[in-house]
Amino acid sequence: MKEKIILASDHAGFELKEVIKKWLTEQGYKIKDVGCFSKESCDYPDYAEKGAIEVANGKNNLGFFFCGTGIGMCIAANKIKGIRAALIHNESTGKAAREHNNANVVCIGARIISIEEAKKAIYAFLNSKFLGERHERRVAKIEAIEEKTML
Question: pTM for this one?
């Protein structure tokens, strides 16, 4: 079963999000777009929060979040319990985010990489699996930190 993909962006990531939405839909993924819905200036934390809550509340949900650099979306998404958001730039970081970190959200800088590089990074992420073993221990430590610090 293919994962459900949650998409989110601010105005800087809007155009890339729209391209990726079409591309993923053509591949048969179920998509939920939580915004933004235009190039009008908006605040990335609003959409990172909406998207991250959707991912955290759904089984087999993954998120692809877009802003100018990907950094803001990544910081904001990681404030939601249960989210492991990773900033990815290429195939290698897309693959590692899934294999090593069991990321459930990836953040991409629309002003940093091309559409083709974004597709390659997302493809690598989607076609990788969490490796477990020593990585399981590390992800468990991240979750333990989250439990200690989230109110």
Answer: 0.94
